[in-house]
Automatic annotation (TrEMBL):
Pfam family, one: ThiF
Keywords (A to Z) from UniProt: Nucleotidyltransferase, Transferase
SUPFAM superfamilies, per database record: Activating enzymes of the ubiquitin-like proteins
Domain THIF-type NAD/FAD binding fold: 134-341
Gene Ontology process terms (BP): cyclic threonylcarbamoyladenosine biosynthetic process
Gene3D superfamilies named among the record's database cross-references: NAD(P)-binding Rossmann-like Domain
Alphabetized GO MF terms: nucleotidyltransferase activity; tRNA threonylcarbamoyladenosine dehydratase; ubiquitin-like modifier activating enzyme activity
Name by which UniProt lists this protein: ThiF family adenylyltransferase
InterPro entries: ThiF/MoeB/HesA, ThiF_NAD_FAD-bd, Ubiquitin-activating_enz
């Protein structure tokens, strides 16, 4: 190799290990390591650190913390049982790190790059997003499929401090073309797979995973969502969305819901602020639901719910679409989520409050189905056309079975309508 290998270690772990040495002459800590790019790059983490990198080849590593050391030549006992040696010491209260890679009988010096687990990864968003505000916030994503996984990753990248992931399903081959995870996660629970992905984007994020069937166990869902600042309903059936809606209302938590229509011809987004605006049931009324075929999250659900009637037409109502069809829905939900979570904390994102006034937004990917009568995109803006967001002004229904009583209970707390 022409250039020296690079070894990435966590700054917080370096500082903690230096403190842990205390008065000891030396401490040795086993570490997890990955070799990438043919030995040009190594990622090293103390054994109790975050497991954030699934790529590369596993390697044995040891972190040695001692007072003064300039070379690894004296560590004959380490050569037999480690591939990577990271040596830490302090000089004038400043940490100094050196690394060596075993190649045959030789130790090759490597450059060490300390990286922070928190803070700097979101530095380029400073001003637009107040990272200290978001770090103290929490959000739950219910449904970790194509849209939910994308939203969860975006929130972790933005610096949201705690994320709760709720999903009972496993990642199947048919999910890969649209999901944030890849082939290496096939067969895993979606929540667990995405949790690892989030830690790779933001090692400081606190992730809780719940394998819950939300339709059958709303009590477990309520326990999982208790205390979060925002709920995102990214499930893919009417039944599950209405359960999340009711739990969110009962807990008085602001919620966002996204829906991709059959064959992904379009979709919509609903924002629910308990006691302030409409809830999901106010928007998706019984009349609305009767006017279209029932949605199923997959063909197995269609057969389970209505085995005698799970025809080819039912299977056609299973939501499918390209990742690019789902992306606009996920992007608007992410934008609304960051707006809600950063509200009152400063930052330029709050300027969106003047534009995102609606609680219901509609998007069309193609002029098909319910959008067949829309005008061609062209250059006219007097009528709806595809690939543009449209906000609609909707009011809360005071006779709504889901939020009517809830709104009456909470009007005083929320100070009435905006």
């Amino acid at each position: 190799m022409s250039a020296r290998p690079r070894v990435f270690v966590y700054r917080e772990q370096i500082e903690e290990l230096l403190r842990a040495r205390g008065r000891e002459a030396e401490i040795r800590v086993p570490a997890a390591a990955r070799e990438l790019d043919g030995g040009e790059v190594f990622h090293v983490s103390a054994a109790d650190g975050p497991n954030i990198h699934s790529a590369g080849s596993p390697r044995r590593a040891t972190i040695v913390v001692r007072g003064l050391i300039d070379t690894a030549g004296g560590d004959q006992d380490l050569r037999a049982d480690t591939d990577i040696l990271v040596v830490l010491r302090e000089r004038d209260s400043e940490p100094i790190a050196k690394a060596y890679i075993a190649q045959g009988d030789n130790w090759i010096p490597a450059d060490v790059t300390p990286v922070p687990m928190r803070g700097e990864s979101a530095a380029r968003s400073s001003g637009l997003l107040e990272s200290t505000v978001l770090a103290a916030k929490s959000a739950a994503v219910v449904g970790i499929g194509s849209g939910g996984s994308t939203i969860a990753v975006a929130l972790a990248q933005a610096g949201v401090g705690r994320l709760v992931l709720v999903d009972r399903d496993r990642l199947e081959i048919g999910n890969i073309s649209r999901h944030a995870c890849g082939f290496g996660d096939l067969g895993r629970r979606k929540g667990a797979a995405v949790a690892d992905l989030l830690r790779g984007k933001n090692p400081a994020v606190d992730v809780a995973v719940h394998d819950i069937d939300v339709v059958r166990d709303s009590a477990a869902l309520s326990r999982a969502l208790e205390g979060v600042d925002l709920v995102i309903g990214a499930t893919d059936s009417d039944a599950s969305r209405f359960v999340v809606n009711q739990v969110g209302l009962d807990l008085s938590i602001t919620a966002l819901y996204g829906r991709v229509l059959t064959a992904a011809v379009g979709g919509d987004v609903v924002r629910v602020r308990p006691g302030v605006g409409p809830c999901l049931a106010c928007v998706y009324t019984e009349r609305f639901l009767v006017s279209r075929p029932r949605e199923y999250s997959n063909s197995a659900e269609a057969a389970e719910v209505s085995p005698a009637y799970a025809t080819d037409a039912d299977r056609a109502c299973v939501q499918v679409g390209l990742a690019s069809d789902i992306a606009p829905i996920a992007q608007l939900i992410t934008k609304l989520a960051l707006l809600e979570l950063s509200r009152g904390g400063g930052g330029h994102l709050e300027a969106l409050d003047e534009d995102l006034l609606s609680d219901f937004y509609v998007w069309a990917n193609r002029r098909e189905g319910m959008y067949e009568g829309w005008q061609r995109m062209g250059f006219s803006y007097d009528k709806p056309s595809i690939l543009r967001w449209y906000g609609a002004e909707l009011e809360r229904r005071h006779d709504c079975a889901a939020c009517g009583a809830s709104s009456a209970r909470t009007t005083g707390f929320f100070g009435g309508a905006r």
